Amino acid sequence: MYQPMLFLHWKQARTFLALAVVAAFALPLLASEGVGAPRGVDVSSLDAYRFGFEAWLPFFPALAILIGMTLALTAWNWDHRFDHVYALSLPVTRWQYTVQKMLAGVTLALLPAVGFWLGANVAAASIALPEGLNAYPNELAVRFFFAILLSYTMLFAAAAGTIRTTMWVAGVILCFVFFGNIANDFLGYYYDFFARENVVLIVFEWMFETAGPFEVFSGSWSLIDV
User: How far apart are CA 27 and CA 121, in angstroms?
Assistant: First the structure.
């Protein structure tokens, strides 16, 4: 059952996956372009390593989220197109079918993760690092893979129902962001707390910056660090 799920998912996502592998491989190389000095060149200052890479940091989790979301949507595309008739015709339970489908997506997520790992190692090998700094291509690739998995599993669960369910989930999140800011500004006229704090930002900071699964998106994405 796993092999047919993998083949169907591959057919749905192969074009995007090809582009994702190329992007994942190229992103560390682009981010390290001009950072520090080429290997073999003497380096006397740490400044070149502190700022050149930072401008690219948001693109690392953004690419991982995009890959995870696309894999989740393409996982259920075949089922939604044919009203889940294919799944109902199989001699397996619903939970077994779902687990096999999810594992197929996790397998495909390895492709861009491996591409990112290769790109990060090539980028790290091309830079001469002074004493006190180290490159972490393997650790960064693991973070990239887990970021893909987290975004994949979240949307996979939402997309397992109907397209309407997925739209409801996305709509609730967008309404919270949009109307939450409006309500916060309105309440700020009457309560000092809302004038000083933005509840929407507090919620997102609590989700992404405190210890927890979402911290993988906002943690350190530096290829080079102490």
Answer: 12
Chain segment 113-147, per-residue pLDDT in tens: 999 999 999 988 887 777 777 788 999 999 999 99
- Please indicate, yes or no, whether the overall pTM of this predicted structure exceeds 0.90: no
The residue count of the chain comes to 226
CA neighbor of 217 nearest in space, from 101, 59, 35, 107: 59
User: Is it the case that residue 68 has pLDDT exceeding 90?
Assistant: yes
Hey, how many other C-beta atoms are within 10 angstroms of the C-beta on 79?
19
CA nearest neighbour of 154 among 94, 68, 215: 68
Count the neighbouring beta carbons within 10 Å of the beta carbon of residue 100: 17
113, 31, 26, 29: which is closest to 71 by C-alpha?
Answer: 113
Sign (positive/negative) of CA torsion 65, 156, 82, 9? Answer: positive
Question: Is 91 buried (19+), middle (13-18) or exposed (0-12) by CB count in 10 A?
Answer: exposed
